[in-house]
Design goal:
Keywords: Metal-binding, Zinc, Zinc-finger. It is a single chain. By secondary structure, this protein is mainly α. It is 49% helix and 11% strand. It is built from 15 helices and twelve strands. The chain is globular, with a radius of gyration of 24 Å. It binds S-adenosylmethionine (SAM). S-adenosylmethionine binds next to strand 2, helix 7 and strand 9. S-adenosylmethionine is lined by residues 20-23, 148-149, 193-194, 215-216, 218-220, 270-272, 274.
């Protein structure tokens, strides 16, 4: 079996260790915006299905077609497939999983959260590789999981207790003699700082996966690459020119937040203090001003107790969020992150109610914010232009739709690649909108 370093060398990458970050991935040739730097199939993954989720996802490709069309494993009743191709590709692992799950008591079934299922799958896949039923390769073997950071000495006692309880549950489900409970608890800690939320092309979360080579990539709040998914495959794409010898960096968190909020999120989940070029400005005048724009109130009173909103009644949600928006426009900077979050919520509710004209107005309101806080090439502004374009087209403003869809394509072809079904669909929509716009133009003449 070729080792990881030579596997990476073939992909013009190298594994290095940096004193302040641990393992790191370096480029050994120049990469350019849109290029796939590395892609990986998950070592293990699970869709976001739970006993209460109304719509189930296929275990193979994570699609969520009509539940009636997804077929359910008749034995364990817990796995779903969109067709025979996915069922076949998952069979070796699911055969073992099914044996374990189908004999479970009802009360234990209820505790089968996606992370418990992910852990069960980790052990079952390791067994399949040990028994040589599934081959091991340089990029796909359990040694890579063993090498992941666990931060066991840095986590809180509460977390430790939680991982120990979850490990006991996994042990009681597997019932394997000699299994190491401490190692299972450590693997839960590894999941916390190495597993990735799998998203669809529109960045909606659909599952969780462990990609042990992609997990070598460190974080920056000013990343040169982006992690996207095609089904359950993970792809890291360059969003800037990455010269040979440079570290490949992605963002683990929402980069639009203020420095303090980003640092808090990184410390809590990933247990490190970021020193990227944006974070190293913490406390400087520009950074304080930026935080005030994003999160600050004009009023300095700290008496506000917060509030909770019901989100299922969209009409009610819109009217409440509009009251908040009115207040926020008085209190906050027009480019405040709070105001943007409120407007995003109004937009979401308007879309649910199919109030397209007003939805378009709100979509347009969020764009200056997106332009300001995200780099020129980032999936979120790309998707916002896409929504804008679709709404404009639907409402008959084809010329504006062409402009918005073109902007979406310019960004998303770099972040999502051009060969995915999502991008092909977007490119086709743009072509159709262009044809329609030129037809309208010629019929006006
Ligand atoms: C997904 S792993 C990345 C690979 C890791 N460096 C390793 O040695 O396996 C995430 C962990 O890497 C470290 N890390 C990632 N980005 C970092 C950064 N910008 N500065 C310091 N440590 C970082 C933290 O320990 C974090 O919990």
């Amino acid at each position: 079996m070729e080792d990881l370093q030579s596997g990476l060398q073939n992909r013009k990458l190298s594994l290095s260790t940096l004193p302040e970050k641990g393992r790191s991935l370096l480029a050994t040739r120049d990469f350019y915006p849109g290029e796939v730097i590395i892609s990986q199939e998950p070592y293990v993954c699970v869709p976001n299905n739970s006993s209460v989720s109304p719509q189930k996802r296929c275990d193979g490709c994570f699609t969520t077609i009509n539940n009636n069309v997804l077929s359910r494993c008749s034995r364990c009743q817990l796995a779903f497939y969109c067709g025979t191709a996915c069922q076949r590709s998952e069979w070796k692992l699911h055969r073992l999983e099914c044996e374990v799950l189908s004999s479970l008591h009802k009360y234990k079934r209820k505790s089968l959260t996606p992370s418990i299922r992910l852990m069960l799958r980790l052990y079952l896949r390791r067994k399949l590789q040990n028994d040589k039923i599934i081959p091991s390769t340089a990029m796909d073997n359990y040694n890579l999981v063993e090498a992941l950071v666990a931060h066991m000495s840095d986590i809180t006692e509460e977390q430790l207790v939680l991982y120990a309880q979850m490990a006991n549950l996994v042990n009681s489900i597997l019932e394997w003699p000699g299994i190491n409970i401490k190692e299972i608890a450590e693997n839960f800690s590894k999941f916390a700082c190495n597993a990735h939320t799998i998203c669809d092309s529109e960045l909606r979360p659909v599952g969780t996966g462990l990609y042990p080579v992609i997990s070598i990539i460190n974080h920056s709040c000013l990343p040169n690459s982006v992690l996207v998914f095609e089904g359950s495959s993970a792809l890291v794409r360059a969003v800037q020119h990455i010269p040979s010898g440079t570290e490949v960096l992605i963002s683990y968190i929402e980069t639009a937040e203020s420095t303090m909020t980003r640092q808090k999120a990184l410390k809590e989940q990933y247990l490190f203090t970021c020193t990227c070029p944006r974070c190293s400005k913490v406390g400087q005048y520009d950074d304080i001003q930026e935080s005030a724009i994003l999160e600050g109130y004009k009023c300095k009173s700290e008496k506000c107790g917060g509030f909770l909103l019901r989100t299922t009644d969209y009409q009610e949600a819109i009217s409440i969020y509009k009251r908040i928006e009115k207040l926020q426009t008085e209190l906050f900077h027009p480019l405040s992150i709070n105001l943007m979050h409120t407007r995003e919520k109004i937009l979401k509710s308007l879309m649910e109610l199919e109030h397209w004209t007003e939805a378009l107005a709100y979509c347009k309101l969020t764009i200056p914010f997106y332009q300001r806080v995200y780099p020129a090439v980032h999936p979120l502004p790309g998707l916002q232009y896409y929504t804008c374009g679709k709404l404009e087209w639907y409402l008959g403003d084809t010329e504006e739709a062409v402009k918005s869809l073109t902007k979406a394509v310019d960004i998303l072809r770099i972040t999502h690649g051009t060969n995915t079904p999502f991008m092909k669909d977007l490119l086709m929509k743009l072509e159709e909108a262009r044809t329609e716009a030129s037809y309208k133009f010629s019929s006006k003449e």
